[in-house]
Design goal:
Blueprint: E1 4-9, H1 17-31, E2 35-40, H2 54-57, H3 68-77, E3 80-86, H4 94-102, E4 115-121, H5 131-143, E5 147-154, H6 167-177
Parallel strand pairs: 1-2, 1-3, 3-4, 4-5
Helix pairs in contact: 1-6
């Protein structure tokens, strides 16, 4: 029996490079016998966390009524969460940050997602420039007691479709297929 894998795609460019990485990862994860669900937060209506702690008094329920209400059940379902994202201004896009901030209510009613991974692509040709963002995600995984199970990082892609033929797509597939 496979795992429940949740892919959180964060690009507002739905047919872009991070989407192609996510699709290959999903294909690999499904081929390995996992159930895969996907959230596209790039166009979702998600407000940032207000730190009001309403969730602590209401069994993990957030007071904000936006698209996160649809996503919370998937966070409780998942065994693995993989963020598929571009990098903007040397960090994750605001759409992903809002989603991650709203996972705060998972402290009041834990999501219990034991594993986390990352698919990342960006324009810069210097891969080292993404490490601060990647490391921040690893720190978060550690704090949440999640095993960081891997990453696929693809630099030097910007225009939609520029990742076509890149070995990173095969790595994304293999990463997905490794989840069992």
């Amino acid at each position: 029996m496979g795992k429940n894998v949740l892919v959180v795609h964060a690009s507002p460019r739905l047919k872009g490079n991070s989407n192609m990485l996510a699709e290959e990862f999903e294909r690999g994860a499904k081929d390995a016998g996992n159930e895969v669900k996907r959230i596209d937060v790039g166009h979702a209506r998600i407000a940032g966390c207000m730190a009001c702690e309403h969730c602590f008094k209401h069994e993990g329920q957030c007071c904000q009524q936006d698209d996160m209400q649809e996503f919370y059940p998937m966070l409780h379902w998942a065994d693995v969460i993989v963020f598929a994202t571009p990098m903007y201004y040397y960090n994750f896009p605001a759409q992903l940050r809002a989603f991650q901030d709203r996972m705060f209510c998972g402290i009041a009613k834990p999501f219990k997602i034991p594993q986390m991974g990352l698919l990342l692509c960006f324009e810069d040709d210097n891969v080292e420039r993404c490490y601060p963002a990647v490391n921040s995600l690893k720190v978060c995984a550690d704090y949440c007691k999640q095993e960081f199970i891997g990453e696929v990082i693809v630099p030097s892609v910007y225009e939609a479709g520029a990742i076509a033929g890149n070995p990173g797509l095969q790595k994304a597939y293999e990463f997905g297929a490794s989840i069992k």
